[in-house]
Every structure is written in C-alpha cells, then in structure tokens.
Amino acid sequence: MTSTSNTLAAATLAITNGLETVSAAGALASTNLLISTSNTLAAATALKQNLIAKTNLVAATATSGTSETLLLSCPIPANAVAVGDTFRVRVIGVSSSTGTLIFRVRVGANGTTGDNQAWISTTSAAQVANAWAGFEVLVTVRSTTTIQAGGVAHAGAVMLPQLIGAAATATIAPTSNWYIDIDCTCSSGTFTAHVATIKNE
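User: That's the sequence. What structure does it adopt?
Assistant: Structure tokens below.
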C-alpha cells in the first residue's frame, strides 16, 4: 500500500492506492480543490480493455473431415461491452492437401459452430499441400443487440474478400455471456490453424 500526504493551502491531500481525499483545516478556496483525474481515467480504460476479452490459440488446431470445425472461441462476459467496442479476429494456418476453404466468424451464446454467422469468406480455387491461408476481421458492437464484422482473407498469394452481399449485422445478447468464434470448413484434407487470436481493441 502506498500512501502520501501533502499540505496545500490549508488543506491536506491524501492519496492512498489511487483514492484521493481532501480535508480542510479552515476556510479553503474552491480553486485549491482542483484534482486531475486524467491518469485515473486512462487506467480505468486500460483495465476495461484487459478485462473484456483476449483469447489466443495455445496449440495447433485442425479441421475434422469436411464439416465446419471450431478453431478458437473467445468468451465475452455479460454486460462487458458498449456500442462501438471492437474486437480483432486473426488466424493463420496451413492446408494439408488440395481443397477449398470456408472461413467464418460467428457470434452467439454457445461458443460453437451453431452460433450466428457474422462473416464468411471462401477460397476461389483449391489449395495445395503446405499452402498458408488465414484472415483478419474486425467485429464491432453496433447496438445493444447486434454486431457487424468485416475483413479480408488470404490463401497462398490470393487475397479473398468476404462474400458479396449487402452489409448486415448478426444478433448478440450482451447482457448474458456470449462468444466470438473462428470456424473453418475444408473440402479435402485438413486446414490447421497454427496461430490465432481474438481480442478487444
């Protein structure tokens, strides 16, 4: 515990663990009560960012068969987000053989492939063995019940936009615990995610 006190113009300013207390010893002009809170606000903002969410892939994870596979899921605590909060979603991995890839970002209450689709991109041609692929997507809270996602994928030397379509939102229920998920479907062989992260900005 750190505690300091100073006498300022007939007043005592005590600071203990970041809590400021002013006690007057007689009449005290209001101008002497000005206390800067900028550092406190900055610390609170940083604390919120650290508390909301951050999940990294701790071990390589591969798709299974030709069905959609969950590669990484990030839990978001209830009531932790506000409109405008943004999350960055990234994954990079490698294909084992030929096959097209479908990348998805999902959001919802389950942390599974059954959550609501927020973003999708697919390779336009078959991969080859040891070809690298991945994507980066931003997920932004648009309202108290919706998010919007956008980003770009890549496969080998080819950049892959999200599927053509009007901008849309996906539904969330942020007053309860919810998830942001990274999913992938591989039509042949496997796609193995080697590095991935989901974190709030």
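The CA atoms of residues 146 and 166 lie 16 Å apart.
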